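Friendly challenge for the regulars: who can give me the structure tokens for this chain first? No prize, just bragging rights.
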Amino acid sequence: LAEFAGRVLPGYNFIGNNTTVSDDNGHGTEVTGVALAQGNNATGVAGMCWTCSILPVKVLGADGTGTDSAAASGLTWAADHGARVINVSLGSTASSAALASAVSYAQSKGALVVAAAGNNSSNAPFYPASYPGVLSVAASDQFDKLFSYSDFGSWVDVAAPGSNYTVAPSGNSYNFGGTSSASPLVAGIAGLLLSAVPAATAADVAAAITQTTDPLIAGAVASGRVNAASAMAAITGGSPTASPSPTATATASPTPTATTASPSPTATTTASPSPTATTAVFNGNVPASGSKSYSLSTSGGVVTASVSGVTADVIIALVSSTGSTVASATGGSGTAVSGTLPPGPLTIVVSSAAARAKFRLSVAYYA
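First reply, four minutes later:
Bragging rights claimed.
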């Protein structure tokens, strides 16, 4: 893809045990786009680090599943091949000696391991995110609150925007949600800091990120929501000239004009009350017709739908009032999709090739 041209290094495929690392699922490309998509190229989206090299390591199959041993092998291989930041947008609620050992090995080689905290709405440890020294990342929204699906707890280091535009293997751009999206945003910031200060250690970068966060409403993580400009100032010894908004932080350092043009908190509060964060939960199954639809009304903003307890892979689609699909995702339990919708009605469609597939659908939105 043009977003990554000239920056992709030779990688390895631990599913096929070969050097073919083409993305047959889409998740890897989405993650890479959030972290490293090229900016100022008049195409697609912009990630956090536009000049960082990409070392692709495939440890999951086309269906998005894999083994702890493959993930462990991937971590070790990446560390041995010079990766300074390793993003892990995958995980499990079960700990693994092999994975823990691989994380420790990567850290001993000087790599900063950044991992998604999980999409289980739980404070139970998620691995490898909760292993010692891993920079674990929860997902926050545009109001600096955690998304309802995001894992949380004192073992989670930071939160980061969990709904980010990225690219698909086809080159199309769309909204990608979940802690799998939040984690590479932080990994991209880490790469950006190392680009500015190559002599910095993994501990230096982690400290710069965790010690310069902005407050997260209701807490729920050890620090707060990441602030790229403040982290850069911390590691370079400078100081940010403006405090970027969550959206600006996720895309690029805002200009003073963009910052000052934002309405003050008082003006915002007076003009319209803050929307209410709401979660709707539905238990259902896919009928013989192949899909099940649920209708809600939103005041606008990010809507995130996730599934759990599924008995077969499903497709989740967010459909606007005009009938257009805003975003979609495919997978089993833990699959989440996010999209920004205007005020008004919206429809969430769950479909599957397997009729009668059971699921639990959680929808986080603003009423």
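Confidence is low (pLDDT under 50) at residues 239-274. The first helix runs from residue 27 to 36. Your move, everyone else.
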